[in-house]
Amino acid sequence: MSSKYVLILPAPALQNFVSHYWLSRDNSDRLHVALPDGAVDLVIQTDETTISSWLYGTTTTRTNISKGQNCHYLGIRFKPGQSRHFICPSAHDLTDTYTATHDALKFSINEVSETFFLESNAAVQLNTCLANHLNKYPPTDQRIDDVIRFIEATRGTTRMSEAAEVFGQSRRQFERVFRQTVGISAKTFAKIIRFHHAANLISQPSALPLAHIAAELNYTDQSHMNHDFQDLAGVSPTQLAGDSVAFLQDLRSE
What we know:
By secondary structure, the chain is of the alpha+beta class.
């Protein structure tokens, strides 16, 4: 039996906070490969007998995550920096690790049942759960959100001095707040964003030559891009272009 992996968009009112929901049913694979993306995931697991939930922080390198055979998984991938509205630990506390939720959530998932793991129900149930929480505790936009959007809009090519200017306070304060909010440094986040843009360009059927993509994204040269791919994904751009990796569904497409 093969695994079924489905991505589901959240309701429009939640799209500033949630990248997507994902559903993985009837897993026969024992490992899932996670790539760095600057995001925190809430993962709910069931083996049709018990239900458990976990928080996974962003990774800083390619990571293999164990899965229970024939289990179902339902995930919420929060946008970078936005998990703070829904969970108690800082993103920095979760980087390169995971933890059972216990009292770590700011909203209740006590009503999660087997019906959550049906594709037709997952989005409706999660939209209601998260929207109710935000209605009760309205989020506030902060300067660090402007910085995150700025780095994403520039495809990770911005200089950190420019990002600090957007934040509007000292460079030291900027780095501290960014790391607490996103889980990694602004420089590492920019590196990840640029990698995802490069990976998406490379995976297109009519992709430009690798040297052109490296130049378009302001890498020093193609060797610099190759180094970042090896560092973050453990594969070369050529390997990814050959579709020899199994995690393309997790690449950011912004």
